[in-house]
Amino acid sequence: MPLETIIAAVMTAALIIYALLGGADYGGGVWDLLASGKRAPAQRALIAQAIGPVWEANHVWLILVLVILFTAFPPAFAAISIALHIPLTLLLIGIVLRGTTFTFRAHDAQRDDVQRRWSLLFSIASIITPLLLGVVLGAIASGTIKLENGVVVSGFLRSWLAPFPIAVGFFALSLFAFLAAVYLTVEASEDELQEDFRLRALIAGITVGILALIVFLLAGTGAPTVRAGISRSWWALGLHLFTAVFAVGAFYGLWSRKYRLARICAAAQVTLILVGWALAQFPYLVEPDMTIYSVAAPRATLQLLVIALAAGVLVLFPSYYYLFRIFKGEASTPASSAGRNLT
Amino acid sequence: MNDLLAARSQMAMSLAFHIVFAAIGIAMPLLMIIAEWQWLRTKDEVYLALAKRWAKGTAILFAVGAVSGTVLSFELGLLWPGFMRYGGAIIGMPFSLEGFAFFTEAIFLGVYLYGWNRVPPRAHLFAGMMVAVSGALSGIFVVIANAWMNTPTGFHIVDGKPVDIDPLAAMLNPAAFAQTLHMTLAAYAATGFVVAGIHAFMLRSDANNRFHKSALAIALTVGGVAAILQPLTGDLLAKMVAKNLPVKLAALEGQFATEKGAPLRIGGIPDEGAGVTRYAIQIPYGLSILAYDDPNATVKGLNDFPATERPPVAIVHVSFQIMVACGMAMMGVAALAAWRYWRARRKKSNAWLASKWFLRALVLAAPLGFVGIETGWVVTEVGRQPWIIYGVMRTAEAVTPVPGLIVPFITFTLLYIFLAAITVWLLLRQVAASPQAFGSDAQEVKVAA
């Protein structure tokens, strides 16, 4: 396999993991805003507890996507940064506000009015950030970033301020909210809280389905290459079939309160959606002017990057496993961790 | 304000903001693990309270540092796409390695901050060590990338395009070693002095509080050792600049005429119109000796460089003087502290901190490290102008074609002012809350002792 393909695959994998983990952290912010009923404080506490120890590590997957992009495919990074300057800047503001307000809330006075103010900022930032992330990815997929002699000629608005990228933005938001609600059913330790997030997950799941259909329809004119890929490629049918199986599996898991099954199925469903997009766009990075082969860095850089990625993963995965075992594993439920404290 | 100036201002503001959090992120974990290690060694609860208190502050600062660092990595493309298109393949490698170091840092910081009751004490200390090591590595990788902008290596230029790219040779550029050493020590010195200054301030009204005494001892040991070593790395860096970046040396020393046996100028204001540096104290042969180890060495002056290749002299020279002055003052305070500690030890006393004047000096010295870091980066960055990659690409060639860059500049400035205000406010809340909380800690300790 060419080095370009390997690196592009790693970049896609990092983006998928970012969606599965970092995305769910944003989804938590959505449910913070929509917390309701007499258990609203408990819902918010569960969300904060779920996000707290992991959001900073989860956030680094996005940084990894970025550094791989600019090391291995520098002209594509430059073109995307120019054409999507505005949504990327707004995305950054969202990232900054989400992370800081979450931390400020945890460390400020525990008075209700103070906490509510930070919660509002945190949850709004958690909503606009995935929206903009979706808009950016939608714009890249749409094939409307045009270059002539390496210069972006499609302007600074046209490629992203369009129905298709905006629909992708809402689709990303709904996926992240869906993932968060499903994960929270597993992480909640009380039945009533589980029921709250079960209902939310079911509603979000239906929203995902509706938005997926809208995105697919808009792709007809909004992103013709990707649309052709996901409708006519040899792998398309199999992919849709598996995605559908996992979507049904997630619903079945939620419906019958088999939450761990629902979690696996929901994650697999989101993974396949992103894999489908990546395959449909392959080998274009910025369609139609840049493929991963035409804008790749020289071989020496790619070789070294592959070595660095392999070595980095060797450090990363055990550390990540350790983090999640501590905070997301069986032992992380309050009862058993309290037991451990006594020993 | 034109777009180039707006882009430069936004980058400068983003870096100036982030470097504070980055430096604290490098040094604070070291202070925390020293305290925690002392706790494991002595079982003295005051050290555990200290590690936990410092960890709380670090949690806020790390979050702001993580997101402001993200802003910078995007801004490489948002503001300087020309630079990234040209240099991404050459210098992306240290950024990729930094990505993994940052990953390790974030993962183990999560374990450290939230894992007090979830992992065994030794595993917790190990997590802190991982944060300290990966934090330092993160900083080193990023500074390597900056060093490459000063002394670009690892490629040849054919028809205006880089060929024969060797990312390892780029990472091992001539400036990398001295710059990373200087910045890493600066992070420990600046953070150590700020923390020592805060605890010295608290001790002025609460002289017997063991919590603050222990805190001050740890912070000042780390900061003081770094401050005493720092002039050595500064000398190494200055010699590297003299060899590889003669125009920058001339600018930071305010040297206009080419001169044999050039004097070292302390202070002074360069007058670019007249081509002289006025009001400086001159030490004969000083610059020639410092830069080339030879009192009769010739130092090339700014006048011998074309006007289009000179950096703005006044700001570079004055910033350099401020940085050196801060460093010297910190070294002095560190030496004074070492002497006071040594004298007290000889008298078998613990009273090395029992002096209002000494505590006042520590409070006054608290911000000097960060003033030094900020002015030092002004020297590095403004001193490289008009180049973004020295001798290869001008800053004006690298800037994005996107218009109206003043809008994001103002937006990020306001956002960062807001974040800075809230961060300071939250940290002050914690400091203000400490006397009550630690009064009891100190008492418990007394009873136990």
Structural overview:
- The complex is a heterodimer of chains A (343) and B (449).
- Chain A is an all-alpha fold and 343 residues long.
- Chain A has one domain.
- In chain A, 80% of the residues lie in helices and 3% in strands.
- Chain A contains 13 helices and four strands.
- In chain A, helix 1 (3-33) packs across helix 11, helix 3 crosses helix 4 (74-83) and helix 6 packs across helix 7 (163-187).
- With 449 residues, chain B is mainly alpha-helical.
- Chain B has one domain.
- Chain B has helices spanning 3-42, 45-79, 81-114, 121-150, 167-171, 176-205, 210-244, 246-253, 286-292, 313-346, 356-365, 368-382, 395-398, 406-448, and strands at residues 156-158, 161-163, 259-260, 264-266, 269-271, 276-278, 281-283, 298-299, 387-389, 393-394.
- The model of chain B is unreliable at 435-449 (pLDDT under 50).
Brief characterization of the structure:
The complex is a heterodimer of chains A (343) and B (449). Chain A is mainly α and 343 residues long. Chain A has 13 helices and four strands.
As laid out across the biggest beta sheet of chain B, the strand order is 1-2
In helices, the fraction of residues of chain B equals over 70%
- Which sheet architecture does the biggest sheet of chain A show? 2 strands, antiparallel
Strands of chain B, total number: 10
Report, as a whole number of angstroms, the end-to-end distance of chain A. Answer: 52 Å
- What is the count of DSSP helices of chain B, taking H or I runs of 4+ residues? 14
- Uncertain runs of chain A are 333-343
Number of helices of chain A: 13
Taking Cα atoms only, what radius of gyration of chain B do you get, to the nearest Å? Answer: 23 Å
> What is the overall shape of chain B?
globular
Oligomer: heterodimer
Q: Helices and strands of chain B: which structural class?
A: mainly alpha
Q: How many domains would you count in the coordinates of chain A? A: 1
Main beta sheet of chain B: 2 strands, antiparallel
Radius of gyration of chain A: 20 Å
Low-confidence stretches of chain B: 435-449
Q: SSE order of chain A in H/E notation?
A: HHHHHHEEHHHHHEEHH
How much of the sequence lies in strands of chain A comes to: under 5%
Domain tally of chain B: 1
